[in-house]
């Protein structure tokens, strides 16, 4: 029986391991941390009974992922829970942009004139997303299986977000769009900076922005249980620094950053690949704060009180300005803050009337200051009285995030800067982005297509290349 080693147990590492195990391969996953899951882990902390997502929280890409859907992880206890409203983006004048699962309801709630254009922009993308998902969630340098739908998606993805926003007149709609675009964590005036918004908005309208019951850990637990059923093994507390530390295997799949892959296979990688991996750029960082809060957050706008996610970035110009500043290495006084209220859809995460609130700010790469007060102030700006509700909190600066997961270089939670080049050619210019140039060794982290997010598709595709190497998989990958 062929043997495989997967280094790293993030969603991509586990998805790769499961796919290999499905073909009867003897798979072992080696994980540096003391728990499996990488960016999909949940911890009970701050107050007994409150469950806090360490990293990922909201899962439009997981419910969109063709591979995760194929795996039927509900058989392993994974339950999706949907909030009443997916996203709210409040403004200082008390108005609020609201993203709902239904494109029609979202359009109806937008200021006059904007609704119809929202429907025109995202209705067709959402309607065709099931067909285009396999094109969009894979290598971009290949002929798409649905060229017309994929090209239509491209029209919404390629322009700078600062330009796309002009589709709408009202600051409410513009800021709703720009807040989603800001997930790209790059300058919103750059080409391709609408791409993440096109994906997340259309995925939301098609499948929702759910949370996993019991926390994102449930995704990891389900994948790990399936892997065990298929005969795979997992080992935690094992950080691979050199290829000589790897057990004998016919194929190796790395759920690591390109720079870690360059270190691990130093002297073995072809020179051009080594250079490309060393040149891989990491973008802005996250500063994360978990709160335990007694009672609900006292939002000024009622829609924020029923939204799974709240974006606190102010008006359109402010969202664009803070993204630009952070990209240039300047910490804004009022950073862009994302707030997760997963307990609204999943009350199992609360302890009585004490609820877990998940928040992070976009900060410059490697930022070493303390953004806790800036995050609290930003919440307080739209929810006066929030401070008085805090029972406990804990903060993680970029260096802490990297200590917990070395893929987050400088606190960059996307495992790579989403500049236009790297969005398309990740991790290097090649039609086979998962290949490292060493036969039998593949890269599967979020540094490969389709990029960051919990979807397992990078793992799926990298495993496909490994299977092909072993003569076990379909020729086209
Ligand atoms: C604060 C935060 C919020 C986020 N929010 C969301 C969200 O709401 N929705 C969403 O979809 N995504 C979100 N993400 C992003 C998402 O978590 C990642 O894109 C996703 O987890 C990437 O999966 P991966 O398998 O590529 O790598 P990771 O999940 O990063 O896992 C990599 C694993 O490999 C291990 N590893 C690395 N190097 C080695 C080595 N040398 N030896 C052994 N093990 C190694 C690491 O310890 C880690 O466990 C968020 C991330 C963070 C940090």
Automatic annotation (TrEMBL):
InterPro entries per the UniProt record, alphabetical: Amino_oxidase, FAD/NAD-bd_sf
Gene3D superfamilies: FAD/NAD(P)-binding domain
Domain Amine oxidase: 13-303
One Pfam short name: Amino_oxidase
Subunit structure as annotated in this protein's UniProt entry: Interacts with COX5B; this interaction may contribute to localize PYROXD2 to the inner face of the inner mitochondrial membrane.
Function: Probable oxidoreductase that may play a role as regulator of mitochondrial function.
Name under which the protein is recorded: Pyridine nucleotide-disulfide oxidoreductase domain-containing protein 2
């Amino acid at each position: 029986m062929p043997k495989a080693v997967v280094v790293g147990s993030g969603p991509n590492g586990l998805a790769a391991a499961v796919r290999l195990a499905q073909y009867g391969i003897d798979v072992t996953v080696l994980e540096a941390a003391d728990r499996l899951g990488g960016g999909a882990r949940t911890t009970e902390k701050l107050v007994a009974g409150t469950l806090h997502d360490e990293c990922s929280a909201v899962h439009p890409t997981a419910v969109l992922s063709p591979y995760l859907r194929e795996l039927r992880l509900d058989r392993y206890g994974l339950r999706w829970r949907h909030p009443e409203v997916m996203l709210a983006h409040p403004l200082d004048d008390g108005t609020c942009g609201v993203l709902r699962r239904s494109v029609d309801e979202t359009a109806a709630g937008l200021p006059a004139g904007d609704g119809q254009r929202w429907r025109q922009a995202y209705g067709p993308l959402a309607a065709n997303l099931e067909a285009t998902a396999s094109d969009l969630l894979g290598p971009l340098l290949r002929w798409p299986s649905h060229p017309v739908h994929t090209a239509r998606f491209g029209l919404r993805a390629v322009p700078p977000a600062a330009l796309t926003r002009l589709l709408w007149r009202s600051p409410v709609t513009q800021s709703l769009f720009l807040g989603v675009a800001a997930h790209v964590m790059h300058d919103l005036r750059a080409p391709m900076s609408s791409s993440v918004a096109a994906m997340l908005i259309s995925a939301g309208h098609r499948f929702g922005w759910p949370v996993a019951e019991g926390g994102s850990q449930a995704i990891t637990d389900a994948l790990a249980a399936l892997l065990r059923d298929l005969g795979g093994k997992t080992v935690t507390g094992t950080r691979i620094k050199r290829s000589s530390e790897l057990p004998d295997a016919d194929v190796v799949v790395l759920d690591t950053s390109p720079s870690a892959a360059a270190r691990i296979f130093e002297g073995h990688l072809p020179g051009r690949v080594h250079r490309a991996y060393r040149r891989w750029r990491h973008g802005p960082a996250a500063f994360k704060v978990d709160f335990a809060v007694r009672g609900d957050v006292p939002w000024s706008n009622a829609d924020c009180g029923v939204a799974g996610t709240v974006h606190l970035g102010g008006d359109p110009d402010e969202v664009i300005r803070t993204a630009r500043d952070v990209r240039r290495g300047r910490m804004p006084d009022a950073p862009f803050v994302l707030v997760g209220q997963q307990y609204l859809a999943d009350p199992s995460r609360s302890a009585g009337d004490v609820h877990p609130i998940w928040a992070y700010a976009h900060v410059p790469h490697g930022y070493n200051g303390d953004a806790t007060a800036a995050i609290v102030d930003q919440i307080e700006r739209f929810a006066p009285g929030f401070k008085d509700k805090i029972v406990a909190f804990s903060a993680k600066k970029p260096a802490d995030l990297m200590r917990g997961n070395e893929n987050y270089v400088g606190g960059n939670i996307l495992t790579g800067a989403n500049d236009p080049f790297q969005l398309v050619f990740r991790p290097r210019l090649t039609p086979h982005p998962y290949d490292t140039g060493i036969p039998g060794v593949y890269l599967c982290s979020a540094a490969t297509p389709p990029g960051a997010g919990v979807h397992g598709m990078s793992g799926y595709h990298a495993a496909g290349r490994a299977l092909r190497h072993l003569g076990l998989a379909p020729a086209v990958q």
